[in-house]
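QA checklist item 7 of 12: single-chain prediction sanity check.
[x] sequence parsed
[x] length recorded as 200
[x] structure emitted
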Amino acid sequence: KKVINSQRKSFFSYPFYFHQDTAWITGCDFLPQLKCVVAVTERTVIIWDYKSKGSQNNCFIIKPMENGLLCVCTATMSDHLAKDNIVMGDDKGYVHLLTVTSDHLGLKQRKGKKESQLQVLDPKTFNIVKRKLHDDWVVKVKYISDLNCFGSCSSDSIHSFVLDDIKRLEDNLPVKEFSVPRGVNAFTYCGKAKVIVTGG
């Protein structure tokens, strides 16, 4: 994993090793409030405190997740300085909402420690909600702050693209969804034109 600045020069990189296992990182994003990097692999959420100096690398592994995670994004819904909301899509058609706070990670307590730390955390200690929105893999999730909505897409021909309030992940109310033959593999939003473009 690398952190790159605005001039596209790599600051540094840090390899993750999971007890002799190898796992592809299927998505990553930045957590603006906690100032960490979040990444997902097969059944694992990684939260990396990339600001750690020298040999001190604080990395938090949340596992095992119930399904295989394929994509991730941050939902910046509030100005809460010690909390980030993470949206993830999996291989069973579920979209998850994971709330992470600085207390979960103990970042304040670790500031004085110099040694590298890799800590495995149980998903049950977190507030995670999930909702099945697609009948195939969720290939992309994105939070669109201009619309106060999240989007998710799948190669599912019936439930191809969902665009709705993040609160819909916590209830069973109907969601705004679109059907596209053979599904949607990618999408983006243009705030200037006020359009969403999908590709499949």
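[x] summary fact logged: DSSP finds two helices and 17 strands in the chain.
[ ] second reviewer sign-off
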